Amino acid sequence: MRIVTSPMEMRSACRGYQRGVVEQSLGLVPTMGALHEGHLSLVRASRERCDRTVASIFVNPLQFGPTEDFARYPRTFEEDCTLLEQEGVDILFAPTPAEMYPTAMQTVVDVPEIGGRLDGASRQGHFRGVATVVSKLFNIVQPDYAFFGQKDAAQVAVLRAMVRDLNYGLEVVVCPTVRRNNGLAMSSRNRYLTECEGRDAQALSRSLRHVEDAVANGERSVAHLRSSMMGDLKSSGSLRVDYADLVHPETLESVEELLPETLVAVAAWVGKTRLVDNCIVDLGEATS
Ligand code: PAF
């Protein structure tokens, strides 16, 4: 696996694939490192679909607020390289902040409405930081496909809107959330959890499962589903709920009636760690 840190070198390496004698399709898996099975599932999806796979590791300062965990975000570069190499990644792009942002940024990419909902409402500027860095990665790598996890459903909605609005010539591929046996969605931030917090954190996926079960059993009242989620989350000791909502999967607007597909999304602090999770409730499946 080749490791590249300079955006210029990365761009010419990727162009090499696209302009070779035989054009090769290129998949990009953007990450902030501290890799887990969720990330590896994205790499595998890219390897299945594309001739070449590029992964990036960059802990993006722009997407962290001043009181958030940028400084202590887990950085496990050596282990990450071993995993990516084992998975058959062709190039790892791992720029430093100075390489990615050599001068103070004058330009940002903002998706203000969608990016101000769910996580965007409580993490001011977060999705501006995400959209800006992902836009830079798209311009540098120019992939045919970019792979993201369903776990970050709000991020997916923001990036899909960005790709559509700015005419990026690539397809966003969304891969299913990977979970531990106890239901907890894989996240780099799970590393922060104590054993006891790890148990409390299971309330997030449990609350989603209860919504799925209730809908499968005929419940159609969004108000009831919302309050049952809140009840589940509040019953867990150290949890502080940020949001628990049923929303449109593309616009992230709260819904008052179930849609054919409704995104059920939750975010909560478990101790000092903020976790997110979600599921899609599919009325077609629920009624079949
Ligand atoms: O999902 C992430 O890890 C990050 O938000 C991303 C997409 C790599 C942008 O920094």
What characteristics describe this protein?
alpha/beta; ATP binding; three-stranded antiparallel β-sheet; pantothenate biosynthesis; ATP-binding; six-stranded parallel β-sheet; pantoate-beta-alanine ligase activity; Rossmann fold; 10 helices; 288 residues; globular; 2 domains; binds pantoate; Pantoate--beta-alanine Ligase, Chain: A,domain 2; 9 strands
Q: Can you give a write-up of this model?
A:
- The model has no long low-confidence stretch (mean pLDDT 96).
- A 6-stranded parallel beta sheet has the order 1-4-3-2-5-6, sandwiched between helices. A 3-stranded antiparallel beta sheet has the order 7-8-9.
- It is globular.
- The protein folds into 2 domains: 2-175, 3-Layer(aba) Sandwich (Rossmann fold), CATH 3.40.50.620; 188-282, Pantoate-beta-alanine ligase, C-terminal domain (Pantoate--beta-alanine Ligase, Chain: A,domain 2, 2-Layer Sandwich), CATH 3.30.1300.10.
- It has helices at 7-18, 37-49, 77-86, 97-100, 119-122, 126-141, 153-165, 195-216, 222-234, 283-287; strands at 2-4, 26-31, 52-57, 91-93, 145-149, 171-175, 239-247, 261-270, 273-282.
- The chain starts with a strand and ends with a helix.
- With 288 residues, it is α/β, with parallel strands linked by helices.
- Helix 8 packs antiparallel against helix 9.
- The structure holds pantoate.
- Residues 30-32, 60, 63, 130, 133-134, 152, 155 line the site of pantoate.
- Pathway: Cofactor biosynthesis; (R)-pantothenate biosynthesis; (R)-pantothenate from (R)-pantoate and beta-alanine: step 1/1.
- It catalyses: (R)-pantoate + beta-alanine + ATP = (R)-pantothenate + AMP + diphosphate + H(+).
- ATP binds at residues 32-39, 149-152, 178, 186-189.
- One of its GO terms (biological process) is pantothenate biosynthetic process.
- Pfam families: Pantoate_ligase.
